[in-house]
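Researcher: Sequence recovery benchmark, item below. Answer with residues only.
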């Protein structure tokens, strides 16, 4: 009889969850929710200030005007570009080579 070395692979599931709220809303219920969600697993908590990119863009008048115009054109179906899947790659190359 020959012996075989068997390699057993185990799937590792990594759960990542993002919570976004105001610091003033942090309370004991949040800690309880974390404990319930992750049970006895070791977790890492990272905290950073959230910046709303849309608000940041809209705070600059030039950007706000461009975005507002683009939204108006989209809603009124003006200046829309229709392409099929085959033309997509060509269009991206054309736009990025400028």
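Model:
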């Amino acid at each position: 009889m020959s012996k075989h070395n068997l390699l057993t692979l185990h799937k590792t599931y990594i759960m990542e969850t993002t919570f976004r709220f105001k610091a003033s809303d942090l309370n004991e219920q949040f800690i309880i929710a974390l404990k319930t969600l992750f049970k006895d697993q070791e977790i890492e908590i990272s905290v950073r200030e959230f910046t709303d990119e849309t608000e940041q863009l809209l705070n600059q008048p030039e950007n706000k005007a461009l975005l507002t115009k683009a939204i108006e054109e989209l809603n009124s179906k003006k200046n829309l570009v229709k392409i099929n899947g085959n033309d997509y790659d060509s269009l991206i190359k054309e736009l990025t080579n400028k």
